[in-house]
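Following the same procedure, the fold was encoded as tokens, giving this record:
***
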Amino acid sequence: MLLRGASAQAMLALGDQAVVSGTSFLACVCVGRWAGNNELGWYALAFSVVVLLTCALESLVMTPYLVLAGRTPGVERARYAGSILLQFVALAALAMVLLAVVAIGVAGYGPRQFAIVLALLVPIVPCTLLREFARRFAYAHLKLRVALAMDMAIALLQIGMLLALARVGLLSAATALVSLGVSSAIVAAAWLSVAHRDWTIRRADFWPSAQKNWHFGRWVFLALMALMLQANVVPWLLAGRIGPAATGVFAACLTIIQFANPLIQGISNWLVPAAARAYERAGVRGVRHVVNRTALLLCAVIGALAVVVIAVGDQLASLLYDRDFAPHHALIALLGIAMLARAWGMAAYNGLIAIERPQGNLLVNILGLAITMAAAPLGLAVGGLTGAAAGLLAGDIASAACRWLLYWFETSRLTAIHASIISRNPAGLTVSV
């Protein structure tokens, strides 16, 4: 069984991601339904900035900790945990400075509404980053109930504020972002008050730990940045070529597809530490067992969900947003197939991280980004929104296929190296690669 020995943790990870994705989904629906496509477009663009910065935190700080913390003795692990808290503070401060600079530039030369949204992100982003830091820290220590409790509290606060804002007619992209920041700040502050026992803070540990994380995480960071840029090429392209209303329509259709996100992200959150532990205990064979079965599970379930979404996507969009919402059946169908391609490639993506070969993900993601950047503008010119989605799909399929080829090459290479070492080890000593 795929989840044997870890079924409880995997189910908690799925439940937690269902809460996170569900909250994001409901936030988009609230903004689109009660504030309109323009505000949803601005909100989607601003949220993509939040996601990019979250990916920087995840790849440079939290993913190395997820993989390496289990290999660190208890006392040293507490100091390692303290050092990544300091790294979070440094990253959050840098993000605030960069956002302030960009907001000032946009205020002088870009749309006023977007400048306001970016300015609001300056105090909001540290709160959302702290929330993500707390989640990933809980995952690293297999305290998934803590992560679930935090995310449920944030969901109740954020959606409650959005509904209250909609009721009094004050819901907009800006106020929706404020609700995200306030809810994240309240819950993350409560977590900090009780989690301090898990780390020992020493300034002397900052640079050695940061260098270790950078050595491992730089490839994950660059790969994630390329992946996120590929995912956001189409929304930003639509905003520049047509306007925020088109971005809002695309975001509305995308939220229909995101019904599958809890499963994809939940399994991904569980897969990194699970595959890393399998690699420690059983080598390449253990990783292949976990990754291959995860891929089969994802393709079966996401494929079924994609069929359902393609069949009833237009009806769902009309129900959630507005009865007059224009049908976009082809657009939703292409996004559904792209979701399946991403789910298929995700297992190999995490497998490469688990065997400490994250460089390969960077090369594959750059390829996917290049294909999307070339195909999406051409598709937009030929087929409008549907053509742009086709360009995104082309990049997703190419990157997923190349990722699996690279994963099989790397695991086969490691297996051959291990066999060669064993053949030269007649004493039968345990050897790890």
About this structure: The CA atoms of residues 21 and 40 lie 17 Å apart.
